[in-house]
UniProtKB/TrEMBL annotation:
Ranges for domain Dipeptidylpeptidase IV N-terminal: 102-443
Keywords: Glycoprotein, Signal
Transmembrane portions of the chain: none
Peptidase S9 prolyl oligopeptidase catalytic domain mapped to chain residues: 533-729
Signal peptide per UniProt: 1-23
Gene source species: Psychroflexus aurantiacus
GO biological process, one term: proteolysis
Gene Ontology MF term list: dipeptidyl-peptidase activity; serine-type peptidase activity
Record InterPro entries: AB_hydrolase_fold, Peptidase_S9_cat, Peptidase_S9B_N, Serine_Prot_S9B/DPPIV
Pfam families: DPPIV_N (PF00930), Peptidase_S9 (PF00326)
Name by which UniProt lists this protein: S9 family peptidase
Gene3D superfamilies (alphabetical): alpha/beta hydrolase, Dipeptidylpeptidase IV, N-terminal domain
């Protein structure tokens, strides 16, 4: 029998008191319940801390009066203390969607008619509202991107038609910073598609502290191949489809040529900053000195990251720090400059992600944290107390706790005490933090704490109403444990049918994602898919998940073992786990299925093709079917290029293994409007299956992106998957 180490035994579900009371419940979950929002949690609105550290603001919309409000609340009491602004009180502006404040909190940037471009990018009509003079100024008469106040609040920089502009709010004049921007050729001040998707940022210009200079990136996309995507106009009445064309560098192809530039507002001049021909410039940030900024560069393999300091007067770049790894170096937003331009940095160089403190010249002052656990979120540095605030896995890889520690690494304080997942949102001066706590039996609970010692100030909001509602349903506990597979103890969760009988035999559905650094097994409450799993459990299925090698938060070596072989070790672990589950007396080894989305779809496809003696059925949603079709930044980070590593790409591609698909049942799903994992992946696989005369089921959702949602789409998709499971597993 397999060795199982239970690390969290959940005998009480949703505070009902006992399994006896649970068995008396008869109400079952339906797909309509799930997708109607029946089980949605009550969440705190996004809050923004004001600089006094005692107040925060939230955005509220009053439907009855069609009035958008920015309201001020007290951290300590939770009581509303003022209205910062309301749309009904602003002549010429009926409503707004987004807002941000200037650093001095005297002006608000308000966005209207905001529309999405890709995952993170938007454009809209923007206004500046002066909170003192009560005047409204429109920034531009057309939609713009990434408007941002200068630190003194006197100017707003933005991007239009791939060029950078700034508006002088004192003179009401506009200056064009760059002139060579052109669609699908030159981009100034915002990122291209692959940077937005894989380096997770859009705005690629930064004001210096004095508001007199702008550092920015320029992307020359001329040699990047174009990708075209047909859109069928499913919401319109057009007779002909349209085509969206954008630059998308697939693995091994040309990236945009990125360069670093500096604009001086006083002289109205642009200067190019010379660096060692970088492949990527994923981060740009000013220090506390208005004439010194930093830029991070990566080679194409992404295994050497360099931090440069650039002198804005001499335009010279000085190499400060080099981070190397045999596999790859992660890019983060953790870099923080202290008043003396020493800086906080995070690194995996000792085998675990930890915090380091460096001097301005790049010499190490000290390693702040250490141990066989990971820093999972860096919250910031309080220059008054000298304390660093962070989240970590010190209490176990499935858990998260919040800590503070002095910059010298001493006097570490655990600020959260409940076992589960704790996330903090700190006030501007680090006096307070709002903690969000959840575990497998507790939906989100929001509480206010003192940052100094973690002491509870007040309870803010819980989800007791959701727990009461769930009392009416026939639900099962989500059991967290570990399973020993291929020499490793892997985290796993399992949901069994209500009134589970170990003398009976049940079919098993496995879910996984398995992508590098990901985590699907955590001590958190139910997400939407968990309610679907509960529904399947009510219908007699066991559902389980295993985080195999390559997933995150268990050290550098565990995560990076999959380098140059994406899919190999991950698949071995899913197959071995399924076999071990199948040895349990209550699991039918002949009725094991697997499913996943995106990377998980890549995995489930490989599972049914290469191990259909283990898996009877598989579902793949929006899968990568060959890493040759995916983008440069993500793919080459883990695989290098196809030219350098052709066997790594082809040996683990599902397309390579269609001939091995001798038995079992396979459902393939994709959205035709997926700009991320292109439907080309599924079309290539479909053709390979057809030519190999392999029967399977497939579904294309027209014009739907990687998330495949909108209207009844998710209900339709999950009905499809449910029926497939019931018919084939």
């Amino acid at each position: 029998m397999n060795k199982v180490k239970i690390i969290l035994s959940l005998l009480v579900i949703f505070m009902t008191g006992s399994m006896t009371s649970l068995s008396a419940q008869t109400k079952e979950i339906s797909l309509e319940d799930i997708w109607s929002g029946e089980f949605s949690q009550e969440r705190m609105q996004n809050l923004q801390s004001l600089k006094d550290g005692e107040s925060y603001i939230v955005q509220n919309y009053d439907r009855s009066t069609q009035n958008m409000k920015i309201e001020v609340f007290s951290y300590k009491t939770g009581e509303k203390t003022a209205n910062l602004l309301t749309s009904n009180s602003i002549p010429g502006l009926s409503v707004f969607q987004t807002f941000s404040l200037s650093k001095d909190e005297t002006k608000a940037l308000l966005g209207t008619d905001v529309e999405s471009i890709f995952r993170r990018s938007t454009k809209g009509i923007y206004y500046v509202y002066d909170l003192e003079t009560k005047t409204l100024t429109q920034i531009d008469d057309v939609k713009i991107q990434s408007p941002t106040f200068s630190p003194n609040g006197k100017k707003v920089g933005y991007v239009k038609d791939n060029n950078i502009f700034y508006k002088n709010l004192e003179t009401n004049t506009t200056v064009k910073v760059t002139t060579d921007g052109e669609k699908n050729k030159i981009i100034n001040g915002v990122t291209d598609w692959v940077y937005e998707e894989e380096f997770s940022f859009v705005r690629a210009f930064e004001w210096n502290p004095g508001g007199t200079k702008i550092a920015y990136l320029k992307f020359d996309e001329t040699k990047v191949p174009e990708f075209s995507m047909d859109l069928y106009g499913i919401y319109g009445e057009d007779l002909y489809p349209t085509q969206e064309v954008f630059k998308y560098p697939k693995a091994g192809e040309d990236n945009a040529k990125v360069s670093l530039h500096l604009y001086d507002l006083d002289s109205n001049t642009n200067s190019a900053i010379n660096l060692e021909v970088p492949e990527y410039l994923p981060r740009l940030k000013w220090t506390e000195d208005e004439n010194l900024f930093s830029v991070q560069s990566l080679n194409r393999h992404q295994n050497e990251l360099k931090l440069y300091f650039v002198d804005a007067d001499t335009k010279e770049a000085r190499l400060v720090l080099t981070e190397k790894d045999k596999a790859y170096v992660d890019v983060t937003d953790d870099l923080t400059f202290l008043n003396n331009n020493s800086f906080i940095w995070t690194s995996e160089k000792d085998g675990w992600k930890h915090i380091y403190h460096y001097a301005e010249d790049g010499s190490l002052i000290n390693q702040v944290t250490s141990g066989a656990w990971e820093v999972t979120n860096y919250y910031g540095f309080d220059d008054k107390s000298g304390r660093i605030y962070f989240q970590s896995t010190e209490q176990g890889s499935v858990n998260r706790d919040v800590y503070s520690v002095l910059a010298n690494g001493k006097n570490k304080v655990r600020l959260t005490q409940n076992t589960g997942t704790n996330r903090a949102d700190f006030s501007a001066d680090y006096t307070y933090f709002v903690n969000t706590f959840t575990n497998t039996t507790t939906p989100a609970v929001y509480t206010l704490h003192r940052a100094k010692n973690g002491k509870l100030v007040r309870e803010i909001k819980d989800n007791s109403a959701l727990l009461e509602k769930l009392d009416n349903y026939n639900l099962s506990p989500k059991e967290l444990s570990t399973i020993e597979v291929n020499g490793y103890e892997l985290n796993t969760w399992m949901i069994k049918p209500p009134n589970f009988d170990p003398e009976k035999i049940y079919p098993l559905l496995m879910f996984q994602y398995s992508g590098p650094g990901s985590q699907s097994v955590s001590n958190t409450f139910f997400g939407t898919n968990d309610y679907w799993y509960q529904m399947l459990a009510q219908q007699g299925y066991i559902v389980a998940c295993v985080d195999g090698r390559g997933t995150g938060f268990k050290g550098r070596d565990f995560k990076k073992i999959t380098q140059e072989q994406l899919g190999k070790y991950e698949l071995e672990d899913q197959i071995s786990s399924a076999k071990l589950f199948g040895e349990r007396d209550y699991i039918n080894a002949d009725r094991i299925g697997i499913w996943g989305w995106s990377y998980g779809g890549f995995m489930s496809t490989n599972a049914i093709f290469q191990a259909n003696d283990v898996f009877k059925a598989a579902i793949a949603v929006a899968p990568v079917t060959s890493w040759r079709f995916y983008d440069t930044v993500y793919t080459e980070r883990y695989m290098t290029t196809p030219q350098e590593n052709p066997s790594g790409y082809d040996d683990n591609s599902p397309i390579t293994h269609v001939d091995e698909f001798d038995k079992g049942n396979y459902l393939l799903v994709h959205g035709s409007g997926d700009d991320n994992v292109h439907v080309q992946n599924s079309m290539q696989l479909i053709e390979a299956l057809v030519q190999a005369n392999k029967q399977f089921d497939w579904r294309i959702y027209p014009d739907k992106n990687h998330g495949i949602y909108g209207g009844n789409t998710r209900l339709h998709l999950y009905t499809l998957m449910t029926n497939f499971i019931k018919e084939n597993l």
